Amino acid sequence: MKVVIVGGVAGGASAAARIRRLDERSEVVVFERGEEPSFANCGLPYYVGGVIEDRRKLLVAPKQMLTDRHRLDVRTHSNVLSIDRQQKTVHVRNLLTNQEYDEAYDKLILAPGAAPWRPDITGINLPGVYTLRDLKDADVLHAAVARGVRSAVVVGAGFIGVEVAENLVHRGVQVTVIELANQILPPWDAEMVSPLQEQMASRGVHFVLGASATQIVTDGEQLTVTLSDGGTRETDMVILAVGVRPENSLAKSAGIDCGPRGGIVTNEHMQTNDPDIYAVGDAVEVTDFNTGQKTQIPLAGPANRQGRIAADHICGRPSTYRGTQGTAIVGAFGMAAAMTGLSEKQLRRMEIPHERIYIHPSHHAGYYPGARPMTLKLLFSPSDGRILGAQAVGWDGVDKRIDVLAIALQAGMTVYDLEEVELCYAPQFGSAKDPINMAGFVAAGVLREDHPVAHATDLVSERPEDVFVLDVRTQGEWDAARVTGATHIPLEQLRSRLHEVPTDSKTIAYCKVGQRGYLATRILLQSGRAAANLSGGITSWQMANGETVGGD
Ligand code: FAD
Q: Which of 125, 154, 173, 149 lies closest to 221, judged by CA?
């Protein structure tokens, strides 16, 4: 059997190596139009930033290794121009010699990835306007910074925008990030990425949110970016990071079906409407594991898994792709934000019933040196407790918690299961009651109606008059910051001062992170009052709207 693969990086290289492991006899030809196969796209921002100093480290599986170890026929600088499905050939141009030829296949795998989107605005192709996709782009950016670039405008605050911004700061560049949404990292819920934005701002990144770039002009030396809010920014360089579009031209012109967002349509074995042609990676439309709907989610993990599944199926194994869950992480200046499953805003948009809780635990035992705070948000079904999504932001241990929750979500687990999961523990690694267990306890407690929760949105200034907001923290905490209109009764005095809490209104109790508020809620509920605990305490309130500080 002869398998031809178009695209030799994440999905393509995974498929090629897997075919060889399963079948020693097949012939595998990989066409890659770039200079290297199997490079680390995800490492490119860190090479630009000088964190990865040695460019050779980006070459995950160099051509020679793929040839020697896996006996793959890897042809770089080779652009596949068209597919002839009747003849079962691809037409290829060698970009070094300009020679063109046909190559026959029995099975074809398309793994061409996705190209950075360039919005149709004036000046988008000016010198000094860059995108970052491959080694060549990284070299150009690296060299531009080395030539003494002092300022940069990054358009788009998604993963790549955030990572590029951080890395340009590492190189001493003044960075402004422009983002159309009113938050960075739009797939997350806004309050869960505000700490990361603050951290980036504290390291000098300037943000313009709720605005897009509408025009770029040059005076020969500098670029001027005009924004939709009427402002302008002068800069030495512009990096576009406004998303990617599936590379589907080969597939389309060969009559392979593509979805409404341009992704190549496949079945669960990654097979297109031509059973001899498979497609994997950023170029394909995927099923959202959480909703069952078709979507595009360009991530490295799914691309690699899909490559493996296509290879399995070609070699006679019935592997299937389960869909993409959207598990992702991004970091900047030591901080990380991670998520899996559905966000609250997606759940709202899709009108899926959900409940949420916030906790703010330390990443390991608080008494052990180096404990750092994190915020964990858990979204779950109010009817059966099934986990719908989770997000976390903090310093250390964010990845570990979201990874555990990603597995729990895929396994269809509930918040009641999280109460029971047994995770490794020693003080320098976690807590005997790990944040995962804590999230389970809190969420399950809500569903059992042991302690109803309220949220920052319930404490807006125009809240109903019959809501009594009770701060149960210490005097010092109260003096430092409080929720407007709250009454202060420290938890330790609550039982003796219970008569001060009205019986005819609902009390929302809060503390710093939710634990004392929970105890207060239990006391109030058992006294016959209607009560709820502000989930995540004043810390969640501050993350949501930052309006707390200052006494009144
Ligand atoms: P690619 O890896 O892009 O490979 C496609 C290859 O096909 C390209 O090299 C292209 O040259 C080649 N090709 C295309 N058309 C042809 C043709 N006609 N003939 C020959 N060759 C062709 N994902 C994460 O999960 N985590 C991260 O931290 C992360 N960071 C990223 C950072 C950057 C800067 C970038 C650009 C991406 C990042 N990603 C990250 C996304 C991740 O890299 C992609 O999801 C993944 O590489 C997709 O794999 P793929 O095989 O579909 O496409």
A: 149
Q: Tens digits of per-residue pLDDT, 280-311?
A: 999 999 999 999 999 999 999 999 999 999 99
DSSP string covering 79-138, please? EEEEEETTTTEEEEEETTT--EEEEE-SEEEE---EEEP--S-BTTTSTTEE---SHHHH
pLDDT tens digits for range 217-239: 999 889 999 999 999 999 999 99
Top mutation candidate among 41, 247, 286 for ligand 1, by most atoms within 8 Å of CB: 41
- Residue 422 contacts residue 398 (beta carbons within 8 Å): no
Ligand 1 centroid, distance to 169 Cα (angstroms)? 25
Reported pTM: 0.95
Is 42 near ligand 1, meaning CB less than 6 Å away? Answer: yes
In sequence order, what are the residues at sequence separation of 6 or more whose Cβ sits closer than 8 angstroms to the Cβ of residue 225? Answer: 153, 155, 178, 213, 215, 216, 232, 233, 235, 238
What does the pLDDT look like over 110-141, one tens digit per residue?
A: 999 999 999 999 999 999 999 999 999 999 99
Say if ligand 1 is within 6 A of residue 156 CB.
no
Give distance in angstroms: CA of 9 to centre of ligand 1: 6
Which candidate, 359, 420, 348, 433, places its Cα nearest to that of 388?
348
Instruction: Say how far apart CA 280 and CA 10 lie, in whole Å.
Output: 9
The CB of 31 under 6 Å from ligand 1? The reply is: yes
> 475 C-alpha vs ligand 1 centroid, how far in Å?
55
Point out the residues that are catalytic. Answer: 42
